[in-house]
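[audit] Reproducing an earlier prediction to check determinism. Same input, same settings, fresh worker. If the tokens differ from the archived copy the diff job will pick it up downstream; this log only records the rerun itself.
[audit] input (80 residues):
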Amino acid sequence: MNKITLTINNKRLQASVEGAESLRTLLVRLGYISVRDSDDREGFAGSDTIIFNDVPVYANLMIALQADKATIRTAEGLGN
């Protein structure tokens, strides 16, 4: 288990992550349910799109460990 620090929707958090855990799985586990999983983990549908350090990315295609020290915005944070 690894610890990471990240900022999600302007909220700084620490999280424990498994080595191969996807970023989407972590976000849902933390309560950000807008990050959907309606595609086949290849990025076809785009329902898992987040803003990662000001760049749109597919959360299913990233490992949660890559989010250490990152700034993430989900659909829940777009109105803020």
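[audit] rerun output stored. Observation attached for the diff report: The chain has one helix and five strands.
[audit] end
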